[in-house]
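Side project, low priority. Logging it here so it doesn't get lost.
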Amino acid sequence: MARIMGLDYGSKTVGVAVSDSLLITAQSLETIERKSENKLRQTMARIEALIEEYEVTSVVLGFPKNMNNTEGERVERTKEFGDMLFRRTGMEPIYWDERLSTVAAEQVLMESGVRRENRKQYVDAIAASFILQGYLDYLQHQKNREE
C-alpha cells in the first residue's frame, strides 16, 4: 500500500508524519533532532529508513513562505534539503505551503493541556501532519472534482 510522508524541515529538527494507506489521514510519527543545521547525514538516513518501513511513495515537504508570500532564507534552505532528499531517495519532493502549520500545532498542544516545556518535542511532528493533511485534503478535493 502506497503512503505519503510529510516533512516539516527546521533548523535543528525535522518533523515527520505519514499518511494512512488510503491517503485520507495524516499521523505524526516523530521529530528527528540534530546538533546543527548542516549535520544531515543521520537525518537523511532516518528518513530513508522510515520511507522503507512505511512503504512511502512520495514526500510532501513544507514550504516556509513568508506571510506576505515572499520567499526568504528558510525557503532556500528547504529547497537545498529537498534537493538532498531527491539525491538520496530518488523522490522529487512535493512542496506544500506550510504557513501557520506550526502555529496551528502549538494551538492544538495548548488546547490539549501539554505543558509549554514539553510542547517543543511534539510541535514539529504535529506541524508535519498538518502539512501532509493539507496535501491529502487537496488530493481528495481533486479526485472529487474529477468524478
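Brief comment: The CA atoms of residues 101 and 134 lie 10 Å apart.
Revisit when time allows.
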